[in-house]
Write a structure and sequence with these properties.
single chain; 142 residues; mainly beta; ten-stranded antiparallel barrel; globular
């Protein structure tokens, strides 16, 4: 049930050049004790019939980002740790290194905010520094 308003801002810094993507959509939000799950659909700008489902799971200092669809990926973002993660692109599948600097969130049963900063590396070379900010709030009933 898409009863929450999900706002996502993703920023990527590659060699000093910043690029950001913003998305606001309806989505699903589940708070179960100390675990929070955010789900939303992303549609392809070039082909609106193609979409992927993004699932963001937050628990403790760990955020898992799962993306299904034409280019599935799984990022494990754990504060202070580096993980090898699977990332699919139109050019093929990659294994990338992900080091998470910061995981901060203020989430409860009604929604809240998540902030994550991390870097990506490939073949031991820094690819980009990234930030994700997700705001979740209940949709107003009309």
């Amino acid at each position: 049930m898409e009863n929450y308003l999900i706002s996502v801002v993703g920023t990527q810094d590659v060699d000093g050049e910043k690029d950001s993507i913003e998305l606001t959509c309806a989505g699903e939000y589940i708070a179960e004790g100390s675990k929070f799950t955010i789900k939303y659909k992303e549609y392809d700008d070039d082909n609106p019939e193609v979409c992927s489902l993004s699932t963001v799971e937050v628990e403790g200092d760990t955020v898992t980002v799962l993306k299904s669809g034409p280019y599935p990926s799984r990022l494990l973002l754990e504060k202070g740790r580096r993980h090898q993660c699977h990332y699919s692109t139109m050019f093929g599948d990659l294994m990338v290194g992900v080091f998470t600097d910061t995981v901060k969130y203020e989430l409860n049963e009604k929604g809240g905010r998540l902030y994550v900063s991390y870097s990506l590396d490939f073949n031991a070379g820094l690819v980009s520094k990234n930030e994700i900010i997700i705001n979740v709030k209940e949709k107003e009933v009309q």
